[in-house]
Amino acid sequence: MEKPLALQAALCYNASMLKHLIDCAMKREPCDLVLKNARIFNVFTGETEEGEIAVAEGKIVAVGKGFRGLREYDAAGKIALPSFTDSHIHVESTMLSPEEFVPLAVLHGTGGIVADPHEIVNVCGVVGAEYIAGAFSRIRCGKTNPVELFLQLPSCVPATPFETSGAKIDGRETARELARDTFFGLGEMMNFPAVLAGEEDVLRKLEEAGRAGKPIDGHAPGLTGDALCAYRAAGILTDHESLTPAECREKAARGMYVQIRVGSSANNIADAVKAADPFNFRRFVLCTDDKNARELTERGHLDDALRRLVAAGMDARYAVCAATLNVAECYSLKGRGALAPGYFADIVLVDDLEDFNVRAVFKRGELLAENGKTLFKIDQKYLPEAVRGTVRVAPVSPADFRIEGHGGVFRAMEVEPHGLYTKEVFVPAPQGELRVKGTDFNKLAVIERHFASGNIGLGLVKGYGFRGGALGISVAHDSHNLVILGDDDGAMARVAALLKEAGGGMALVSEEGEEVFPLDIAGLMSSAPAAEVVSRTRALADRARRMGVKEYYEPFMTLAFLSLAVIPELKLTDKGLVSLAKYGYVPLEEEKNH
Fold it and tell me: What is the phi-psi region of residue 76: left when phi exceeds 0, alpha when psi lies from -120 to 50, beta otherwise?
C-alpha cells in the first residue's frame, strides 16, 4: 500500500525546485496559481489582509500582491481560510462509505480528518482499518487525496471487558501495528480506569505509541485532579469528553488539547465557549466524533461546527484556529493549518466568519469544489469481502425479551437530552412479568451478533417516548451488537430477525408494518449513494418520531450509545447492565431497601 500522505512531512524539494519556489515568490517566474482579490485570514495574528496567495508545486510561496500565475482565480472579496481538519471522527458513524463521505466533506471545506476506525475494528479487527485506509488511498484528484486521512489504531478493542466484540487487539498486536505506516497514532484511550490502575496490557499500548513517536488520543469524562494528572502523565494528548467549563479549563491547564465536539448526538459547545479565553484558546480543537449522513448533507461538517460556535458566542478567530492551526500543532501536521509561505495550498473560501458558507475549496492548489459542487469524480467503490457478512445472530423469540419482577426495584436508564450520558433511576418492580405498554418505560435489549452466542442483555429505558412496536440498529457503540428498544416483545424479536436477514442495518416494526435499511459494510455503513442513505434514514427516524420518540433524542443514533459502557452512568451490553461508577455489572433488580 502507498505510504499515506498523513505520514509524509511537508514537501521537501531539491535545490532546483527550491530555486523555482523562490523565483515564484520573488516574481521572477509565474506561479502555478494565483488566488486574487482575497481577504486572507492570518491564524497567527488574527488579522485579515486583502491580497493574493501565490502557489507553486502545491505550496504557498507568498502572500502579497502583483503576482503572475499560469492560472488565476478571482476570490471576489471572499475570506480565505486554511482548510479544516477534524481532530477526531469515526467515519463509520456517518453510515457512508469513504467514497460517499469524501465529496460531502470536501464541499464543506474539510481537507483532513484524524480518524479512529474504532467501530469497524471492533467488528472486523485490523482488516476493518485497512479497508478505511485502502478506500481513502484510492480516492484521488490528480496527484492528491481530496481529504487526507490521519488514521489511528484503536486502543480499546474491545472498549471494556463487559461486552462481546468481534475482535481483540492486545499490547503485542498494538506494537506490531503501530510499527506500520498505515497508522498515524493511537486512538482514544477510553479505558481510563485501567490507565489509572496501571494495568499491564494498557500500559504496553501507551508505551508502544510513545516508542513509535505517535500521538495518543484520550477519552476521560469527568477526570480531574490527581487522576487527570496521572492520565496526562501517561502521554495522552487530547480529550473530547469534558463535562463542564471548569473541566475544559483544567484539562487545558494540564497541557491537554480540549476537543470541542459538535456531533449529531452530542456537543459541548456551551462548555467550550465559556472555557476558552484569549490565553488558552490555542488548546482547543474542533471535532465531530460522530456525524451522520443526514447532518453532513443538510448542515455541513466543520463549517457547521464553526457557525454554531460563533453563534454561541465564541470569538470567530478562536473558532477558526480550533479547526485549523490548533489541530495541526496538536498532531504535528507539518505544512498544514495556515495560509503562509511554506504551507500547503489547502484553501477554503467563505463568505464571512459568521455563516462560513463555503464557496470554493482548493487542495494543494487544485480546485476541488466550487459553488456547492465537487469537481472530481470517484469511479469505483472499494468493498472487500472482509467487511461484509458480519452479522451472526442466534435464533431469537419473543420470550427472550420477557422481564420478571420479584417485588424489589428495577434499575432503569434515563438519557440526558441532546447527550450520551444516562442517569440511573429506580422504579418499583412487580411480582411477575413486567409490562411496559402504556408506561413511560421501554424495554432495551442488546443481542450479541459476532459469534451467535445467544447472549442477550435486558434493561429498561425511562422517558424515550417510543410506543407501539420496536426499533433497532446494528450500530451499538462500541462492540456493535444489536440494540433494540420497544414495548412489544414480538416486535422486538421481529426487529432482531430483520437485522440478521439484512446483514445489519436499521429496522422498525409497528402495527403499520415493518421497514429495514441495510448497512452492508460491517453492519455499520452502507454502500448506497449518500442521497439514498439520507432519505432512507430520515424516513425511519421520522417514523420513529411519529411513534413518540422525544425531540431531543436522535431516534436511532441515541439508541446506538445506550450500550457504550465507557460513558456514565448506566449502560447495557450483551452481558448485562454496567455501572461506570462501579466499573462492573449491576443487577437489573435490587431489593426495595436499596
Answer: left
Give the domain extent around 73: 10-77
Identify whether 381 is part of a domain: no
pLDDT band of residue 10 (cuts 50, 70, 90) is: very low
Pure H helices in 26-139: 98-107, 118-124, 126-138
Per-residue model confidence (pLDDT) at position 568: 86
Rounded to a whole number of angstroms, the CA Rg of the chain reads 25
pLDDT interval class at 566 (50, 70, 90): confident
Write out the three cell numbers for 55. 502557489
Would you place residue 11 in the very low, low, confident or very high pLDDT band (cuts 50, 70, 90)? low
> Residues 165, 287: one domain?
yes
**Block residue for cell numbers 502579497:** 64
How many Å apart are CA 533 and CA 330, to the nearest integer? 34
Residue 369 lies in a domain: no
Helix axes 316-323, 302-311, angle to 10 degrees: 160
Q: Under a CB-based contact definition with an 8 Å cutoff, are residues 348 and 336 in contact?
A: no
Tens digit of each residue's pLDDT (9 = 90 or more) over 83-118? 999 999 999 999 999 999 999 999 999 999 999 999
User: pLDDT tens digits for 17-30?
Assistant: 999 999 999 999 99
Question: Residue 16: in which H helix or E strand, if any?
Answer: helix 15-25
581 pLDDT band, cuts 50/70/90, is confident
Q: Are the C-beta atoms of 524 and 483 separated by less than 8 Å?
A: no
Say if CB 579 and CB 572 are below 8 A apart. no
Both 216 and 278 in a single domain?
yes
Report the C-alpha gap between 560 and 483 in whole angstroms: 7
Alpha carbon distance 153, 186 (integer Å)? 5
- Per-residue pLDDT of 219-252, as tens digits, reads 999 999 999 999 999 999 999 999 899 999 999 9
Residue 90 inside a domain? The answer is yes
Strand 358-363 relative to strand 347-350, pairing: antiparallel
The whole-angstrom separation of Cα 232 and Cα 404 is 45
CATH number at residue 59: 2.30.40.10
Q: Which three cell numbers stand for residue 438?
A: 402504556
475 and 519 in contact (C-beta within 8 Å)?
yes
Q: Which of 205, 207, 176, 208 is nearest to 191 (CA)?
A: 205
Pairwise CA distance, residues 311 & 288, whole Å: 17
Contact 566, 580 (CB under 8 A): yes
Whether residues 16 and 120 share a domain: the answer is no
CA 269 from centroid of its chain's CA atoms: 16
Total Cβ atoms within 10 A of residue 444: 26
